[in-house]
Amino acid sequence: MNKSILSLGTSGLVAFFLIFFFQIGFFTGLENFFEDLLFVQQPVHSDIVIIAIDNESIEKIGQWPWKREVFANTLKKLEKYSPKAVGLDVVFPEESRFGTPDDQFLEDALKNLSYPLVLAIKADSFVLKNNQAYTDSFSGQLKKFKGQTNPIKSSEAGAPSSTEQFNGVNIGHVNLISDPDSVVRKFPIFIQSKQEKIPAFSYLITKNSGAKIPKEESLEQISRIVFSAAPGTISRIPFYRIISEEIPLSRLGNKIILIGSTAVDLHDEQPTPLSKGTQMQGVEIQANIINMLISGYQLKPLSSVFVSLWMLLVCLCSTLIFTIFKSSFKPLFFNAILGVFWLGAMLLLIDEGIMPNLIYITGAWFFSTISLFGCRYFTGENEKREIKKAFSRYVSKEVLEEILKDPKHIALGGEERHITILFSDIRGFTSLSEKLSPQELVGILNKYFNIMSKEILTNKGVLDKYIGDAIMAFWGAPVKDGDQTDNAVQAAVSMVKQLKKFNKELKEKKGLELDIGIGIYSGRAIVGNIGSETRFDYTAIGDSVNIASRIEGLTKEHKTKIIISDSVKNNLKNKYTFELLGSVEIRGRKELVKIYKVLI
Description:
Elements: H1 3-23, H2 28-36, E1 48-53, H3 55-61, H4 68-77, E2 85-91, H5 100-109, E3 117-121, E4 127-129, E5 132-134, H6 139-143, E6 170-173, E7 177-178, E8 184-188, E9 190-192, E10 197-199, H7 201-208, E11 222-224, E12 236-238, H8 239-243, H9 249-252, E13 256-261, E14 269-270, E15 280-281, H10 282-295, E16 300-301, H11 304-324, H12 330-352, E17 354-355, H13 358-391, H14 397-405, E18 415-426, H15 429-435, H16 438-458, E19 462-467, E20 470-475, H17 484-510, E21 516-531, E22 536-541, H18 543-557, E23 562-565, H19 566-569, E24 577-584, E25 593-599
Parallel strand pairs: 1-12, 1-13, 2-3, 2-13, 3-6, 5-9, 16-17, 21-23
Antiparallel strand pairs: 4-5, 7-8, 8-11, 9-10, 14-15, 18-20, 18-21, 19-20, 21-22, 23-25, 24-25
């Protein structure tokens, strides 16, 4: 299979699985973890102040829950500070345990306040559907303030409250959304009940404070909270100090005031991205949301289609880099592409407030890179095994290592190359075979072939084949060899020298000597795996092969061991001694070929 197609298919498969995992939210926990790292602690808006129902206040005022008369008196006392808006983050789900008169104190205090007030309610449960929050558990709590409340109706949701509406009470929900890891990261801007569409507590406070906030239609209905302040860092005043009127006008004048619990025993705390082991009080979370709305910086998720396309693009870019660039440059470009996509993601986050889904970008880069390298490694190993299988019989270990270093340059299917071909043949083999038994003949031939083959392989030749008592070898393929003629001639000289040693042994044992002739020619030939489906060999074919064979045949006529053509002699770098034998006509070739005897 074409490697480019294989690489593209691999990346496509990676992209498919990542998109699938993204759609089912498989990596949501990991994604949340990485996105939490983007939040850094910053000062909140100076207008936001918390009046804390803390442990010290409970000690001074009394056991919780307090009388509602305490809250009524406090709300009245806040009028002298002319706050921009006040949010009472205390839920009153049932009648006061101190009786109806206590409830009446609070109801009377809510009438004709000089500042906007928002009370908190909480849905016992709600469901998220189509990026909206729905509940049917608000109605009982709303009845408590019937006649004093002005919840936003579905038809007028998001309409700003005017000062004339402050004789009533705004009611907002304080529900938050925790992810599977229990960390609060989102809140619903509105929760739809059967009767009303209840806005978020923090949204109503911000709107009624006069701050410029985004229009409802531009807000994500399930909104990501941009946390700025860590637990315990927002300006706060103990509740009891308001009752004792110890607070100067400058501390609360013209501020957005949130009244809520910070006492540990009241258990109104949850983990947030900035918690770092310390949970954040509910009123602090509301303060962070208000700060986000005032700043106008809202985090918006990327559409699932865009994230899917982004992952596909990362995988595609990885494939292009993998197939185009050389191995030494690939790590550089792979890291560069990740950097480019991260930079783009950061620009989206900073300029547009769009959450960049870094885990999926990084995952696409990581898994496509690993898959591509893994795929290339295993296919490369298979390719190397095939090459090893094909060439281990033909070439030396050193040449085989050269082949395996860069297998892509090996054209097993066939190519034309300039090569140097060597033929050698035993003279008088027929008469020799008549003097020996089959076992003796085979034994001598095997030893002879071992000796001759070793010299060919030692000099980087390809041992093509044995043809009876003849040997065919060549240089210049499959690995290009700039010294192919020198290597071929050196192999021939070594073969003749080794034959002398072998003949000495053979004469002592059998009273025989072998005589050989070697012909060498350089020219163009076709090399490749040639054969049938059941058997094929890496070999060379063409006129150059035929000429080399015929030059070898001339050694007997000229009574010499080695004959080379002028195409070999003219390309030799090492110095040898030659004798010109003349120009001969070779069958199948129009031009005469100059041949030389190599003197040993």
